[in-house]
């Protein structure tokens, strides 16, 4: 049987926006519970809080004794292995076909053979009617198929708690009913605790054992279907009948701002229920029929639920009308506080990436793919920039040394300028502009498609799986390209100094060997390592923290490139100053 989820006094804010506060409810073990509410009332935020993906400011979420609010990320990753989650659009990984998507949690968390994995995957695909479609990638299947594939993936590890975000979104009524029936069959077969977020009235009437409703930042009602569906609470009955008249308006923001209390007198006096109104002239005094498994398999949760209702253990909760709490608004964090928080989070991600580099299993394939990708998009621009850069430095220094009568130092000055300064900066600017921007866009679009959250709820750490390979790819690519850019820059400088400005080849090389030392060459590569690391961490940080929507991804890419450039010049200044102070020049 699935676990019990006990939510106590839970509150969540975003900036100054109070999403909901003091939410208290219990998801009874093995039963199906639906959470309803108009758009924007924070149903998805609540679901993510239960998964530990969103951090509420107050309250607790106890799952068999573990508090998801206070648990460390490592504990949450472990707890989430007990969850199966179906996101709104399935949150399938776009780079894998349906089969690999469904097999993913088994490959990550079990030592099963491929033959065993195949048997489980095909059984789940059969359950959701997707046999024959397993070789298609998410871009080739319909919204409904994505949902069913997401459901199959959420079931492969036999989860104890199944969380489902809007199973009906984007589906026609028949497929919605089929999916609801499928969820009931799954509940009968697994006895898992299920929480379904929806605003589909038919689904809410026929599927769950318990229902709750969020409205105007609070849980207005929660309890067994037998009571909830027969209530005359104006908010609940308006919502359940889809009536445009009533306390629920066009937008949650406007509803929030209204300061008058909700009128709790029934809109339809005389004890008529929402069901009566649904049936028009024919009064219906009984509950709508609840879906039962067509397989004929008994649903143990239904018996336990009946028992709880008849013994009086299951009670309907109705929120008191409390205006003061509702009107509460929180102070917004200042710009400086937000900037400092971002810098702190960026550092924390950098440290986490270093720590996670030494954790197993290491995503070698992802590293190789990312390294190849970063090098392939960066090497041509890097080379094209290196030649004029080397030439400009050689011409400038060549002219200057002639002016002061020190032509014999031209070689040393140009090579050191290219190797120590120009090459690492050029390389990393190109890596940040080409590779880093693409990494940021990739992670950002995965985030807005819920792929990152899907990974976390499967108990997989995105830092180990996604960030470490990308950061290391940037570091290795920076070292490799820095070497190439140095060579091309030095050759370019030699060509312009010796061929164009008439310098002597022997003097060019002799001055270099006389004045430069091996550490001068090393410092360039050390800079490349550090700059590559900075470019990779900033790109991943902005990608993983992208705001919702395509504009959010665009903004994140822009900020990632700008922030990397600023950091690079600052870090270069610090390293150069330290090097020149700490390492005496040859012959100094
Ligand atoms: N990461 C976030 N940052 C800031 N605000 C957020 C974030 N996620 C959600 N919100 C805000 O929280 C509120 C509730 O959003 P949520 O998606 O939970 O609503 P919902 O009830 O699931 O709506 P719908 O039924 O339309 O999906 C919205 O105002 C949304 O803008």
TrEMBL record:
Q: Keyword set for this entry?
A: ATP-binding, Membrane, Nucleotide-binding, Transmembrane, Transmembrane helix, Transport
Identify the Pfam families for this entry: ABC_tran, MlaE
What InterPro entries does the entry give?
AAA+_ATPase, ABC_transporter-like_ATP-bd, ABC_transporter-like_CS, P-loop_NTPase, Permease_MalE
PROSITE patterns named among the record's database cross-references = ABC_TRANSPORTER_1, ABC_TRANSPORTER_2
Q: Residue ranges of the ABC transporter domain?
A: 5-241
Q: Where are the transmembrane segments?
A: 371-393, 400-419, 425-445, 466-488, 494-516, 528-544, 556-580
Going by the entry's taxonomy, the superkingdom of the source organism is recorded as: Bacteria
Protein's recorded name = ABC transporter domain-containing protein
